[in-house]
Amino acid sequence: MLTYILRRLMYAIPILIGVNLITFSLFFIVNTPDNIARMQLGVKNVTPAAIEKWKANHGYDKPLLFNKNNDGMAAFTDTIFYTKSVKLFVFDFGSSDEGRDISHDIQQRMWPSLAIAIPSLLVGLLVNITLAMLLAFFRGTYIDITGVIAGIFLISISALFYIIGGQYIMSKLWHLVPISGYSEGFSGFKFLILPVAIAIVGGVGSGTRWYRTIFLEEINKDYVRTARAKGLSEIGVLFRHVLKNAMIPILTGVVVIIPLLFMGSLLTESFFGIPGLGSYTIDAIHAQDFAIVRAMVFLGSVLYIIGLILTDISYTLVDPRIRLS
Question: What is the DSSP string of 41-110?
Fold first, then answer.
């Protein structure tokens, strides 16, 4: 197990370097250090001297990827890419282009993101699996057909419709919850009800259909026929056999969501005015703050890799036949 984890971590290093290189290239294809300086200085007729001073103070006064004025490894290390990237691998995110401590911002903003993401994941998973098992139990009946049609209908609706519609009905018409905002502590619960409910409703169509497909595939296998032949009830088959053997694909689907638990939802946090990492990333993109964008993309990649490793480990817990080596 330990050897497997260490090997996966070693594989992660070139992946993270590649992700960081792609992020760097995409950002500077559409931007230049001079443009970043002009935007941060906020002066239309800023002088070249002010631009050069800002670039020198923020580490943008070097070549992007290759420094032809140096020899050997210095030609690659004395560049913006190297100086801005190497500290990421020890999770030193440095300062934003506006001078804010990125690590401090992440520590402050991760909690609002988690406050939305964790209940959305847990309650949504429970609702989706319950509905999927209900449709699988009544497979081939009008209940199953109606559920499938409703799932397709819900999938076809844009996430923006759920957000705007929920705000209009629940907040503006019925005045049940605040339309936006956030506060810490127990008083912030009222600000989380609507975003969490919308996240659950928005994912119930795709989630239910996905788990229903998994359960139907398991129901047609030989071990289920054997369980029925031994006299086990259909509900017992679903809970004792089908659900247990469907855990591997379920875990695989959950791992995709793991980075969102920390990174937050870009749309939800922006529309509801929640100061999480999702809105933090959106604001950084609007401000062309490369330091924050780079840090958030890198952090998301790390979390996704960790999620994959944890998923592989969890496979061994739900299926003893699987061994990691």
Answer: HT-TT--HHHHHHHHHHHT-SS-SS--TTS-TTHHHHSSHHHHHHGGGGGT---B-TTS-BHHHHHHHHH
**Distance between CA atoms of residues 146 and 150, nearest Å:** 6
How far, in Å, CA of 283 to CA of 105, rounded? Answer: 13
Angle at 242 between CA 240 and CA 247, to 5 degrees: 100
User: Residue ranges of the chain with pLDDT lower than 50?
Assistant: none
- If phi > 0 it is left, if psi is from -120 to 50 it is alpha, else beta; for residue 42 that is left
Instruction: Output the pTM of the full model.
Output: 0.84
For residue 157, give the 3-state DSSP assignment. Answer: coil
Here the tokens at position 143 are 């209940």
What are the structural domains of the chain? 2-90 (no CATH), 107-318 (1.10.3720.10)
